């Protein structure tokens, strides 16, 4: 995604051919009839949304709740919660809550043994837990549904909430501001020690702070690891950012460990029997040219960004079991560049092997994903439930001709490739499946619009389908085949709907818990102003 962002910035900053935009021919889209893929509902909120809509099982009501964040006309931060009403087969407004500006982040907890999750907020000094308190009439208000057919309007009516944000933990971190202009998603709540309870993790300037749940104690155990944040000095600007960490079982004791990638090695902080982590790391050697910091976060000896005319950079993208042998494998992004407009990314696969002293990795990759174009946005998914991971990546070309074409059409063609592992644990040279989508952007606003591409089970057959957006007018679904010869049907089913300009804002969840994935659409400032308080929920039929 970051490579895509850098490339789009380059195009948006190119001014030379802007005048050619006058030559663009605009055609009126023709819409296909709506299919039976989804039942469509609309929510109209009393505030403008600022974040993608979350879905989580916060309460004991059947189904998942929808969580919306936004800002009112007066500038107040707002939280709205919608709950699923199984009797009416619809959603009702459950809570409308004002949030303080001293909160700067939120996160969802893990799904616990009860099936429920918690919603947390973070200030510079505390972690708060959202505590819903029902008003008169119980959990589901008797005022009736506020989610209706798209042609109808449904407006929130709750005027005063009784809910609370309960402080549960005093914390310190490198986030020092008393007030924040934005409420953002931040991954500070995780199950670090595998007990299906919420733990918390926050970066300090010189170390990493953990607060760990304990099975026999309601209080969290505080611990620090000597993992400093990444420091970057660029002229007069000094920035800190948390290090990229992986939480993987590296010593095969069924407990997740904390893994930090340094140049030529993995530093593993092993989880112990008490559910905390050893403060001394062990080292697992890698090839000397494999790193843990992105090339754009590095500074050359002269204090400038790295020279892209002769760039060769390998970064651990993720650590996961790819071939189904229960050992954690490495996917390494190999970036090669001979100039800003001549950059490629390959993905190299290093399979873990069990040696006498533990896991070992060969210095050369066992297989790789290659293309003459720039690859990004890697995702792993087991499409056919064989225990082996398929790899999905996005691909686009970046050159002078592509920039000229993009300026004329305000769009860039992008391909989505899916690679399936063969019997020899190798990925093919050519993609097993390919699908063309489109990135749009605006020179006037400087905003780009990313397409939506998801691999989710939309029809409940247990196999992942391809779901993608088509410009701003359709969502298409290519259903999976339970066939050894082909992964997917040849033809896509179409559904007509107003797609957000930035379709990556579309989230998914099984809202009504029928084992079919539903889609939740909301709009941003790239769309029309009248859409900013609208949410479209597509319930899979």
Low-confidence spans: 8-33, 140-157
Query: Strand share of the residues?
Result: 35-45%
Report how far the terminal alpha carbons are from each other.
32 Å
* Rounded radius of gyration (Å): 24 Å
Describe the 3D structure:
The structure is a single chain. The longest helix has 12 residues, at 2-13. The strands form ten sheets. A five-stranded antiparallel sheet has the order 10-1-41-40-39, with no helix packed on it. Strands 2, 3, 4, 5 and 6 form a five-stranded antiparallel sheet that branches. With 541 residues, the protein is mainly beta. It is built from two helices and 41 strands.
Name its key features.
five-stranded antiparallel sheet; mainly beta; 541 residues; globular; 2 helices
Please provide a brief summary of the model.
The chain has 541 residues and is mainly beta.
Topology:
Elements (H helix, E strand, L loop, with lengths): L1 H12 L24 E7 L3 E2 L4 E3 L8 E7 L5 E9 L4 E10 L5 E4 L10 E4 L3 E6 L16 E2 L14 E7 L13 E2 L3 E2 L8 E5 L4 E7 L2 E9 L4 E5 L2 E5 L3 E4 L8 E6 L2 E5 L12 E4 L4 E2 L19 E10 L8 E11 L2 E9 L1 E4 L2 E4 L5 E3 L4 E8 L8 E7 L3 H10 L1 E9 L13 E9 L6 E2 L3 E4 L8 E6 L3 E5 L14 E4 L10 E3 L8 E5 L11 E7 L1
Parallel strand pairs: 7-12, 23-24
Antiparallel strand pairs: 1-10, 1-41, 2-4, 3-4, 4-5, 5-6, 7-8, 8-9, 9-11, 13-14, 14-15, 15-16, 17-18, 19-20, 20-21, 21-22, 24-25, 25-26, 26-29, 27-28, 30-31, 31-32, 32-33, 33-34, 35-36, 36-37, 37-38, 39-40, 40-41
């Amino acid at each position: 995604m970051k490579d895509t962002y850098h490339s789009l910035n380059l195009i948006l900053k190119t001014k030379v051919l802007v005048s050619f935009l006058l030559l663009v021919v605009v055609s009126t889209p023709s819409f296909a009839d709506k299919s039976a893929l989804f039942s469509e509902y609309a929510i109209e909120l009393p505030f403008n949304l600022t974040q993608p809509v979350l879905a989580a099982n916060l309460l004991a009501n059947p189904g998942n709740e929808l969580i919306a964040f936004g800002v009112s006309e007066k500038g107040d931060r707002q939280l709205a919660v919608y709950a699923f009403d199984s009797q009416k087969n619809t959603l009702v407004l459950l809570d409308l809550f004002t949030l303080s500006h001293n909160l700067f982040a939120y996160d969802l907890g893990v799904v616990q043994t009860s099936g429920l999750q918690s919603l947390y907020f973070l200030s510079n000094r505390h972690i708060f837990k959202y505590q819903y308190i029902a008003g008169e009439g119980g959990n589901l208000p008797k005022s009736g549904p506020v989610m209706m057919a798209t042609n109808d309007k449904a407006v929130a009516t709750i005027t005063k909430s009784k809910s609370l944000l309960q402080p549960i933990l005093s914390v310190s971190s490198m986030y020092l501001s008393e007030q924040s202009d934005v409420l953002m998603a931040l991954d500070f709540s995780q199950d670090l020690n595998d007990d299906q309870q919420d733990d918390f993790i926050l970066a300090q300037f010189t170390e990493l702070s953990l607060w760990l749940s304990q099975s026999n104690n309601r209080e969290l155990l505080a611990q620090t690891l000597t993992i400093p944040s990444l420091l970057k000095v660029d002229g007069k600007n000094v920035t800190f950012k948390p290090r990229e960490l992986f939480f993987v079982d590296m010593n095969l004791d069924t407990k997740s460990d904390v893994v930090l990638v340094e140049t030529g090695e993995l530093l593993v902080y092993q989880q112990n029997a008490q559910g905390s982590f050893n403060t001394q790391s062990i080292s697992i050697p890698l090839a000397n040219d494999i790193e843990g910091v992105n090339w754009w976060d590095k500074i050359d000896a002269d204090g400038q960004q790295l020279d892209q005319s002769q760039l060769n950079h390998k970064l651990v993208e993720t650590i996961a079991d790819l071939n189904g042998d229960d050992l954690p494998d490495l996917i390494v992004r190999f970036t090669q560049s001979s100039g800003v407009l001549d950059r490629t990314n390959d993905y190299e696969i290093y399979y873990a092997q069990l040696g006498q002293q533990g896991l070992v990795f060969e210095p050369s990759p066992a297989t790789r994903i290659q293309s003459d174009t720039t690859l990004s946005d890697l995702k792993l998914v087991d499409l056919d439930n064989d225990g082996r991971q398929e790899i999905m990546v996005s691909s686009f070309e970046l050159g002078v001709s592509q920039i000229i074409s993009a300026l004329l059409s305000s769009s860039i063609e992008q391909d989505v490739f899916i690679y399936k592992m063969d019997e020899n644990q190798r990925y093919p040279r050519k993609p097993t499946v390919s699908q063309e989508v489109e990135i749009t952007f605006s020179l006037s606003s400087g905003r780009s619009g990313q397409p939506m591409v998801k691999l989710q089970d939309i029809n409940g057959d247990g196999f992942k389908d391809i779901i993608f957006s088509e410009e701003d007018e359709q969502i298409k679904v290519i259903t999976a085949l339970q066939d050894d010869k082909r992964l997917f049907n040849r033809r896509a089913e179409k559904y007509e709907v107003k797609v957000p300009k930035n379709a990556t804002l579309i989230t998914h969840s099984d809202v009504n818990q029928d084992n079919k994935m539903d889609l939740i659409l909301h709009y941003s400032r790239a769309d029309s102003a009248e859409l900013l308080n609208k949410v479209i929920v597509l319930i899979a039929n």
